[in-house]
Write a structure and sequence with these properties.
Helix content is 25%, strand content 25%. The protein is α+β, with helices and mostly antiparallel strands and 174 residues long. The protein folds into two domains: 74 residues, Orthogonal Bundle (Hypothetical protein yqbg); 76 residues, no CATH class. The strands form two sheets. A five-stranded antiparallel sheet has the order 1-2-8-4-5, with no helix packed on it. Strands 3-7-6 form a three-stranded antiparallel sheet, with no helix packed on it.
């Protein structure tokens, strides 16, 4: 079960002006590079922490319902389950009524509990489609400061060592 981003975040956890100040850059001549490094650093921090930082939408597909009715969602922190569908053999999706499932965002990982009365998917692969919103919130300030600092440290490292550093795990300070 893989989570696929539908809509990326509207903002980054660290903005280009803030990062420009952190890097002590006098003008915006390298804002394009800084913005690209911020996006890459956010993705690296998300991968390392197992957390989505800024509110974004994700699609998760499963082949069918689990026997125990519990689906462990691969994105955290969960904001909301926006849609749960079963796909028929004709490829058409049908929404599962909200009363037939419940989301538990506070668990880690978040859980979706599906009622046994939920309709069965009509195809054997990707028959259950879940659309969720995940992240700490919609604004940079909603992201925990240690994660924002990790982004700043990565961007600074990558900015100063453009192609000079060997790829590998995240540095210990991050």
């Amino acid at each position: 079960m893989t989570a696929i981003p539908i809509d990326g975040p509207a903002v980054e956890p660290v903005g280009a002006p803030e990062m420009r100040d952190y890097l002590r850059l006098d003008d915006g001549a390298e804002d394009g590079l800084v913005a690209a490094l911020i996006r890459a650093a956010r993705r690296a921090v998300e991968a390392a922490s197992g957390r989505v930082l800024i509110d974004s939408r994700w699609r998760i597909a499963r082949d069918g319902w689990p026997a125990d009715g519990v689906i462990l969602l691969p994105v955290s922190p969960l904001i909301a389950v926006e849609r749960l569908r079963v796909v028929g053999s004709d490829g058409e999706g049908t929404d599962v009524p909200a009363g037939l499932y419940a989301a538990y965002a506070a668990s880690d990982p978040p859980r979706l509990i599906v009622d046994p009365r939920a309709p069965e998917p009509g195809r054997a692969w990707s028959g259950v489609v879940i659309e969720v919103r995940a992240g700490f919130g919609a604004s940079p300030e909603s992201v925990p400061e240690p994660l924002r600092q990790a982004i700043r440290l990565l961007v600074a490292r990558w900015f100063e060592n453009r192609g000079d550093a060997t790829p590998g795990p995240l540095p210990p300070d991050v």
